């Protein structure tokens, strides 16, 4: 995976290069990031040159508050939560609980994301931070084509180091003041611990057999799964 520094885009990287059996994940095909609402000329140039399609996993309220205007790019809006981000913070849901909610309650939307990736266009998947919704959907796509498990976990865990520390401090202060009993809220808003992703993927293996089997059980076809492998694995 390659971290990319582009002004106006937080937590941007190309996940290509990680091992996948005897092969590797193809570079220049699957990118991930935080939201694209603040891109300037340099970021727009990067997106125009490197990306053909954008998958926006934010909910309607997030998109309305921070819309993305990206001329020349196809944008697919697939809200991955059945509910708002605020509802999870207020409900004091842990990261583990949040990710299970995505996997169980948003399986059809995860499949929509993976189906787009199977088409093989250079695609950027993003949410607000590029951490949870992006992290889960990208991890499942990579796991389904046989990417190395620890490389997937490392890619997910890298997000915490890519979020601006000033932003994390401000978020933690805001949550402590307004949601003092929501003990998991700060972790949900700022952290990406490797054990959480390991636990999620292991749980999917236990319940479905593999990430590929989870996607097939959720509506992905065998042909689409094969196409996903062709798109992502070099």
Automatic annotation (TrEMBL):
Gene3D superfamilies: Protein tyrosine phosphatase superfamily. One of its GO terms (molecular function) is phosphoprotein phosphatase activity. Residues 108-171 form the Tyrosine specific protein phosphatases domain. This is Tyrosine specific protein phosphatases domain-containing protein. It comes from Microbacterium azadirachtae.
């Amino acid at each position: 995976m390659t971290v990319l520094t582009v002004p106006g885009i937080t937590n941007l990287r190309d996940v290509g290069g990680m091992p996948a059996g005897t092969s590797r994940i193809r570079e220049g095909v699957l990118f991930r990031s935080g939201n694209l609402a603040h891109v300037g000329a340099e970021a727009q140039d990067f997106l125009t040159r490197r990306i053909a399609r954008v998958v926006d996993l934010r909910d309607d309220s997030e998109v309305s508050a921070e819309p993305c205007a990206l001329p020349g790019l196809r944008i697919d809006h697939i809200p991955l939560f059945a509910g708002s981000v605020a509802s999870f913070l207020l409900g004091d849901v842990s990261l583990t609980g949040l990710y299970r909610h995505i996997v169980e309650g948003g399986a059809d939307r995860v499949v929509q994301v993976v189906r787009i990736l199977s088409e093989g266009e250079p695609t950027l998947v993003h949410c607000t931070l590029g951490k949870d919704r992006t992290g889960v959907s990208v991890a499942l796509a990579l796991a389904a084509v046989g990417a190395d498990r620890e490389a997937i976990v490392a890619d997910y865990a890298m997000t915490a180091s890519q979020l601006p520390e000033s932003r994390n401090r401000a978020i933690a202060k805001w949550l402590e003041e307004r949601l003092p009993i929501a003990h998991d809220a700060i972790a949900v808003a700022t952290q990406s611990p490797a054990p959480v992703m390991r636990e999620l993927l292991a749980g999917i293996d236990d319940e479905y057999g593999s990430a590929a089997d989870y996607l097939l059980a959720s509506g992905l076809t065998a042909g689409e799964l094969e196409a996903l492998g062709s798109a992502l694995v070099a």
